[in-house]
Write a structure and sequence with these properties.
Number of helices: 16
Protein name: SIS domain-containing protein
GO molecular function: hydrolase activity
Number of domains: 2
Keywords: Hydrolase, Repeat
Radius of gyration: 20 Å
Shape: globular
CATH architecture of the largest domain: 3-Layer(aba) Sandwich
Strand order of the largest sheet: 2-1-3-4-5
EC number: 3.5.-.-
Distance between the termini: 30 Å
Strand content: 5-15%
Order of helices and strands: HHHHEHEHEHEEHHHEHEHEHEEHHH
Number of strands: 10
Largest sheet: 5 strands, parallel
CATH topology of the largest domain: Rossmann fold
CATH superfamily of the largest domain: Glucose-6-phosphate isomerase like protein, domain 1
CATH class of the largest domain: Alpha Beta
Pfam families: SIS
Length: 359
């Protein structure tokens, strides 16, 4: 009997996939490395991404900027395509589309090419529609993900962007060989923990399943690199569990969204151990007076059964490879627990009518 792939199938492939990406980085990123060697004066990178691709970039944006010593901007592909009349010909544009079929990103890349801008596209499908828009492709190295709710591809994209930063910085001369080797070693240590975090995430769900099943409103809150994880939690839970969910940056949550807070809110705090940890703890303490449904995904330690400690000390940016896993497991297992069949689309004609994805 043929075994059908599920989200969990691809979650369990994340460690092997990331290990291969790390090992093959020099060859897969060769064109990008060569570009950086030839363009050491580069000052700006503009990333075009939407959906989970946007969330992935938000996990890495500040790391990319810091290590490459460049300004990194993210643009909504359709807004750039249809509403922006200026294209920065001195910037490097990077389109991100795992499937290579995101219509908005394809159209934005076409505009970049028409304006003769330097660009690359990061994708897992070198024969997809986006390959007809440009030949400047970088293979993510994660293969096809047959389940629409991407998990392995999320980790693969984050890792590739981090590696573009590290390899690009070495080529550009903004880091030395010692720093390069240290960063690669930290990534190796992070990837080695993936299977352990999958196991912990399953246990975390088991401990809290009864409470999770009662959720009708979810809010994920993160800061720094954790903001990208909060956004991906929003995307994954909305896609699979199909209840209202929003992802917020820590300070942004304090400017209005907190006003809906009551005991029906399930708050998930993402603690990436960045410089805003103290402010995050202050908010968590305050909100605990208004809802008992508070859960924490933390790089530190915790004995609270509602929390999951990923115990990662390789830095805020690399920890995103692990911080996302509990939300991937939560989305898969909770949707299954409440009886949602993810193999059946509630809107089977959506893509054909709206053409958000193209072949």
């Amino acid at each position: 009997m043929e075994v059908k792939e599920t989200m969990l199938t691809y979650i369990k492939e994340e460690k092997e996939c990331c290990t291969k990406i790390l090992a093959n980085r020099k060859s897969s990123l060769s064109s990008f490395i060569d570009y950086m060697k030839e363009n050491k004066a580069l000052k700006r990178i503009t990333v075009l991404a939407t959906g989970s691709s946007l969330n992935e970039v938000n996990c890495c944006k500040n790391y990319l900027s810091d290590i490459l010593k460049v300004e990194v901007d993210i643009k909504n592909p359709f807004i750039y395509k249809y509403y922006e009349n200026y294209t920065d010909t001195d910037a490097l544009y990077i389109g991100v589309s795992q499937s290579g079929s995101s219509y908005s990103t394809i159209e934005a890349v076409k505009k970049v090419k028409e304006n003769n801008c330097d660009h690359f596209v990061l994708t897992s499908n070198l024969k997809s529609a986006i390959s007809r828009a440009t030949s400047n492709l970088i293979d993510m190295g994660c293969g096809e993900e047959k389940v629409g709710f991407v998990t392995k591809g999320f980790s693969a994209t984050v890792l590739n962007i981090l590696l573009m930063g590290i390899e690009g910085a070495l080529a550009k001369g903004t880091i030395d060989l010692s720093t390069y080797e240290s960063e690669i070693s930290k990534l190796e240590a992070t990837i080695a923990k993936i299977d352990d975090i999958i196991g912990k995430s399953m246990e975390w769900f088991d401990r809290n399943e009864a409470e999770f099943k009662k959720a009708k409103r979810v809010v994920a809150i993160g800061y720094g690199a954790g903001y990208g994880i909060a956004c991906e939690a929003d995307t994954k839970i909305t896609e699979t569990v199909r209840i209202p969910c929003t992802g917020h940056e820590l300070e942004e949550y304090m400017h209005g969204p907190y006003l809906e807070l009551d005991d029906t809110n399930y708050l998930f705090y993402i603690e990436s151990k960045g410089i805003l940890e103290e402010r995050n703890n202050l908010l968590k303490k305050y909100t605990s007076d208004y809802t008992k449904h508070i859960f924490t995904v933390t790089c530190g330690n915790s004995q609270n059964p509602k929390d999951i400690a990923i115990d990662c000390n390789t830095g805020e940016y690399f920890s995103t490879l692990l911080l996302v896993i509990p939300f991937q497991v939560l989305a898969y297992r909770l949707s299954k627990s409440i009886g949602i069949d993810l193999s059946v689309s509630p809107f089977p004609d959506f893509d054909s009518v709206l053409k958000s994805k193209v072949k």
